[in-house]
Design brief:
Largest sheet of chain A: 5 strands, parallel
CATH architecture of the largest domain in chain A: 2-Layer Sandwich
Strand content of chain A: 15-25%
Largest sheet of chain B: 5 strands, parallel
Oligomer: heterodimer
Order of helices and strands of chain B: EHEHEHEHEH
Strand content of chain B: 15-25%
Strand order of the largest sheet of chain B: 2-1-3-4-5
Helix content of chain A: 40-55%
CATH architecture of chain B: 3-Layer(aba) Sandwich
Strand order of the largest sheet of chain A: 3-2-1-4-5
Number of helices of chain A: 10
CATH class of chain B: Alpha Beta
CATH topology of chain B: Rossmann fold
Distance between the termini of chain A: 55 Å
Distance between the termini of chain B: 31 Å
Number of strands of chain B: 5
Radius of gyration of chain A: 29 Å
Number of domains of chain B: 1
Helix content of chain B: 40-55%
Number of strands of chain A: 12
CATH class of the largest domain in chain A: Alpha Beta
CATH superfamily of chain B: Response regulator
Chain lengths: 342, 144
């Protein structure tokens, strides 16, 4: 690429906007960053830039008045700076400031958000493949173990041997159950057809997975299931929704409390509610919990995408998702999904 | 007893049928053999599809073959290709899939392709025997 094709840029402002632009510009082959400036020496993008070998300065004027600059991007948000830039820049240098640079910054943030969402989806799908691969590799030896044990049962009448072999079979069946749960969860990311799904069964299946959410297990499960509650969804996605909500509920109770699962059917709409007696959600967070990347969990323990995905899935099937919560009392999530297409 | 030997074939008793068991894991073949021999079936083992065809042809038992029980993950072949491979050689012999993959879509595809049953390991001996009996019964009804 010739020098004429390259755009030489300086960034004014090294806060969040400066950081986002720095990341974007360093990835663009046609852009060269001549420097980044901020009056605050501790601004985050300054350190990042110096690691990348990009000139940094607190003297904005020196950077603005540099020769050969094609574009100045001002993301300081300081209106007075526009005058300073106009006074000191070379006539051929263009300026992107005010709302234009704000829009650019928003766009960059949006793109990076989508990218991490995509990454998360790929990661989930990858985990699905990984998990079903493991289940397969366990099922083969498990079959050998269980079938030989059954054979011993058939070939001997000794009650002591029978008792021990039965214990082996019981233990094997528990492993089988865990494997089945893993593959069911793994499958959640793999198909996309909506069919009539029996909700009560899915709640039970999801509970089998969500139980692993905490090590402490002192849960009372209350089930209040209506008869034949069916909804039209992709079974895997509904399963993902239920596992997610139940995991949150169990974690909010730190493994101790009452989890109430209710289902009913009214006027062609299937209703599901998941209620916990956990810590509850403060009112100021209630509106934010469905936003992507909102999390109150410690770093590395929550992606902040769980409830966002739950909401996206429910909306996809023309459903409603509601939350009621009281700090110290608990939280109830209610889902309504249509039973038939229309 | 060698893995390719057909047990009970010449023992004088009447056989319930000759079953080919294909799996790359020898212990899986062994337990299937044990389970089926107790119910009076004769069993031929092979570790993959190619070897299965070789074995059956070698024993000149091709016309006697009543049923195939096979995994669908083979070193050289996977999924529906495995089924088509057998179908080409023995179009009328029923096939039971015995696999470690509990895959709903795969099982639907397999059943649509004429597979008699899709069993997921670990399968209980009784269930395996019932599935084998049913596959052979259907075969008789169809008049193969």
């Amino acid at each position: 690429m010739s020098n004429q094709d390259r755009t030489t840029v300086v960034i004014l402002g090294a806060g969040k906007g400066g950081t986002a632009l720095l990341e974007l510009f360093t990835r663009l082959p046609g852009v060269e960053i001549a420097g980044i400036a901020d009056q605050d020496a501790s601004a985050p993008a300054l350190q990042h830039a110096s690691q990348l070998g990009i000139p940094i300065t607190q003297d904005l004027v020196s950077l603005i008045s540099l020769q050969g600059i094609n574009l100045i991007v001002n993301v300081t948000g300081d209106p007075h700076l526009d005058l300073l830039v106009a006074a000191h820049k070379h006539p051929e240098t263009e300026v992107l400031g005010g709302s234009a640079s704000k829009v650019l910054w928003d766009f960059v943030q949006h793109a990076s958000q989508i990218q991490s969402q995509l990454f998360q989806t790929e990661k989930l799908a990858g985990m699905g493949t990984f998990a079903s691969g493991i289940a397969h590799d366990i099922n083969n030896p498990l079959y050998i173990l269980l079938a030989f044990a059954e054979n011993i049962l058939e070939e001997t009448d000794d009650p002591r041997i029978h008792e021990q072999v039965r214990s082996i079979i019981e233990a094997g069946k528990r492993i089988q159950g865990i494997c089945q749960n893993i593959t069911r969860y793994a499958r959640a990311t793999n198909t996309d057809n909506a069919i009539a799904v029996e909700v009560n069964e899915k709640l039970d299946e999801a509970l089998n997975i969500a139980r692993y959410a905490t090590t402490l297990q002192d849960l009372t499960i209350v089930k209040s299931f209506g008869e034949h509650v069916e909804v039209l969804v992709n079974p895997g996605e509904l399963f993902q929704v239920l596992v997610n909500l139940m995991t949150n509920a169990i974690q909010a109770m730190e493994g101790k409390g009452t989890l109430t699962l209710s289902t009913s059917c009214e006027n062609g709409v299937g209703k599901i509610s998941i209620a916990d007696t956990g810590s509850g959600i403060p009112t100021e967070n209630l509106e934010k919990i469905f936003d992507p990347f909102f999390t109150t969990k410690p770093l590395g323990q929550g992606t902040g995408l769980g409830l966002h995905n739950v909401k996206t899935i429910i909306k996809k099937y023309r459903g409603e998702l509601r939350v009621e919560s009281k700090v110290g009392k608990g939280t109830t999530f209610s889902i309504e999904l249509p039973r038939s297409p229309k | 007893m060698s893995e390719s030997q057909t047990a009970g074939m010449f023992s004088g008793r009447e056989s319930e049928g000759l079953v080919l068991v294909v799996d790359d894991e020898s212990d899986v073949r062994k337990v299937v053999r044990m389970t089926l021999e107790k119910s009076g079936y004769d069993v031929v083992e092979a570790e993959d599809g190619e070897k299965a065809i070789e074995e059956i042809k070698k024993g000149e038992n091709s016309i006697l073959l009543n049923l195939i029980i096979t995994d669908i993950r083979m070193p050289n072949m996977n999924g529906i290709d495995v089924i088509n491979y057998y179908k080409k050689e023995w179009p009328s012999v029923p096939i039971i899939v015995l696999t470690g993959f509990p895959d709903v879509e795969m099982s639907t595809t397999m059943l649509q392709h004429g597979v008699s049953d899709y069993l997921v390991k670990p399968v209980e001996s009784e269930k395996l025997r019932a599935s084998v009996a049913k596959a052979l019964e259907q075969r008789e009804v169809r008049g193969f």
